[in-house]
Amino acid sequence: MAQMKNHRHLPAFILLDLVQHENHGSAICHNLVRDLPDFQCDTAAVYRALSRLEREGAVVYHWDTTQSGPARKVYLITDKGYEQLVEWKKDVESRIKKLNHFLTVYKKLRINK
């Protein structure tokens, strides 16, 4: 079977988390594990995606120094991030249609493997 890209939609899920509340990277990772069935969080991938989203202007951050321990980057979604989230929604809707078609055709084949 061809290698699947495991984190293709990771930026979409990060933006979706940030729409609900500002957050730091490890909390985003925790939320994804909690909310997505069978999701195994790659913390490094989350931080790479956050960095890419920051370069694109989709997120910004501020330093949280209110907690004990080292300061944390707390990310917030920007207007550009909201625009990207709308595009991700369109992408997901399109993929759902294609996947539903696949499942419909597959079921008709009556393959029992």
UniProtKB/TrEMBL annotation:
Residues 15-85 form the Transcription regulator PadR N-terminal domain. It comes from the Bacteria. Pfam families: PadR (PF03551). InterPro entries: Metal_resp_DNA-bind_regulator, Tscrpt_reg_PadR_N, WH-like_DNA-bd_sf, WH_DNA-bd_sf. Gene3D superfamilies: Winged helix-like DNA-binding domain superfamily/Winged helix DNA-binding domain. SUPFAM superfamilies: Winged helix' DNA-binding domain (SSF46785). PANTHER family: PADR-FAMILY TRANSCRIPTIONAL REGULATOR, TRANSCRIPTIONAL REGULATOR RV3488. This is Helix-turn-helix transcriptional regulator. It comes from Dialister invisus.
